[in-house]
Design a protein that fits this description.
Oligomer: single chain
Strand content: under 5%
Shape: globular
CATH superfamily of the largest domain: MFS general substrate transporter like domains
Number of strands: 0
CATH class of the largest domain: Mainly Alpha
Radius of gyration: 21 Å
CATH architecture of the largest domain: Up-down Bundle
Order of helices and strands: HHHHHHHHHHHHHH
Distance between the termini: 45 Å
CATH topology of the largest domain: Growth Hormone, Chain: A
Structural class: mainly alpha
Number of domains: 2
Number of helices: 14
Length: about 425
């Protein structure tokens, strides 16, 4: 196959999409670097794991309470200006910390402010992908590329955070991140559509009644479109999978894999992210014509089977670390088969005028989904053990996959 025939190359030949992707690549890499740096910096200042937990909490809370509202405002203001000013305001926030002291209070304020702004950026970016990819046969590939980039930037941000703090120090790291956000805003500026200085579409002024009525329109679309509503539920389940794995990973590493907790990011989270990236590549290149529902069922069943089996990895009599890396990579691939087709399905079945509203609801659902593993999984693992929790969760995913398959069969074969 010639290079020009590669689906990813075809997508990147679309200049506006390429600008959007470069914006994501730069901003997401340095956003992840910033968050990982802040976690390490706050621990350096306080020596407290609880202080780091507060940071994670401040990142999560805006998702729950602002996601749906942000989607409404994005549809009103326009996606391009929202993305541009999201980058620009995040750059200003980080630069303010560069000019000030590195107190824990300042760092918490920075994290919360950036998380609030990101609630507006996410539905704007997700809603723009569909607009820029005119050939809808390439839509799954476009979403796969964004997923590959996201997972790659998580790994890259984690890897770069330590060297940045060590070699240029936390203070100058803030300046580099601020400049990166400004560069990302310049790529967003190149996108077609509403000029960045025009924040209001249409003659109707923005007020509480308008915001609330637009919100109800988005909810009405979800109510009348079961495939989109089901997609949001599935994305929530996907995020719970990642959240549960993240919460119990340190205990699993200590009790089952018997490795230092400090190696969790390298031997558990990195293979999971790598698997997601591999799954995204495979989907985008080879499965873009496969029915979305079929891909979701594959992802569901594979995630349930391999997560449940992974819980017993120390019972196989095989070298435990290589076996663990292989299993967790496969689980990452399965998660990609669930996450990417669902995103594509939502975009394909949501009109342009309400797409950001729907993704605002997605953001809220993901935020709520993140609360579950934080609140319950760790405590349950302390009571019954990490292997039991992972085995139960794998079984739950398999049962949900079976139920989803049965529901789809019933909807496709009405009596």
């Amino acid at each position: 196959m010639k290079l020009t025939e590669n689906a990813f190359v075809q997508v990147l030949k679309i200049a506006p999409f390429r600008y959007l992707w470069l914006s994501q690549l730069i901003s997401q890499t340095f956003l992840q670097l910033l968050f990982f740096s802040l976690m390490m910096r706050i621990y350096q200042i306080t020596g407290s794991n609880s202080a780091v937990s507060v940071l994670v909490f401040l990142v999560t809370i805006p998702n729950i309470f602002l996601g749906a509202l942000a989607g409404v405002l994005v549809d009103h203001w326009g996606r391009k200006p929202v993305m541009f000013f999201s980058h620009f305001v995040r750059a200003i926030l980080v630069f303010c910390v560069f000019l000030s002291s590195e107190s824990v209070g300042w760092l918490y304020t920075l994290v919360f402010g950036i998380s609030v702004i990101t609630q507006f950026f996410f539905p704007a970016e997700a809603g723009t992908i569909f607009e820029l990819v005119k050939d809808k046969k390439l839509l799954l590939t476009a979403n796969s590329l964004f997923s590959i980039t996201f997972f790659a930037t998580v790994i890259l941000g984690n890897v770069l955070a330590g060297p940045f703090l060590l070699h240029i120090g936390p203070h100058w790291t803030f300046l580099v991140v601020a400049l990166a956000f400004l560069v990302a805003s310049m790529f967003t500026f190149q996108l077609p559509g509403t000029p960045v200085w025009v924040l209001r579409k249409g003659p109707e002024p923005l007020n509480f009644h308008k915001i609330f009525s637009d919100f109800l329109i988005g909810i009405d679309h979800l109510y009348k479109t079961p495939i989109v509503r089901r997609g949001i539920y599935l994305l929530g389940i996907s995020q719970i999978s990642i959240g549960v794995l993240g919460v119990i990973a340190p205990g699993f590493a200590d009790k089952v894999l018997q490795i230092p907790v400090t190696d969790v990011s390298l031997l558990v989270m990195a293979p999971a992210a790598t698997g997601m990236a591999i799954g995204a590549v495979v989907l985008g290149q080879f499965f873009r014509h496969t029915p979305r529902e079929k891909l979701i069922r594959i992802g569901f069943f594979a995630a349930g089977i391999f997560l449940g089996t992974y819980a017993l990895v120390n019972k196989f009599g095989l070298p435990i670390i290589p076996t663990s890396v292989i299993f967790i990579t496969i689980i990452g691939v399965a998660n990609a088969f669930l996450d990417i087709p669902v995103n594509t399905m939502i975009q394909e079945n949501t009109p342009e005028e309400v797409r950001s509203r729907v993704y605002g609801v997605v953001s809220s659902v993901i935020g709520l989904a993140g609360v579950f593993p934080i609140v319950f999984s760790g405590g349950l693992a302390d009571v019954v053990g990490v292997q039991v929790v992972m085995l139960l969760f794998g079984g739950t995913l398999f049962a949900l996959a079976f139920l989803y398959n049965k529901t789809q069969y019933a909807s496709n074969n009405p009596s």
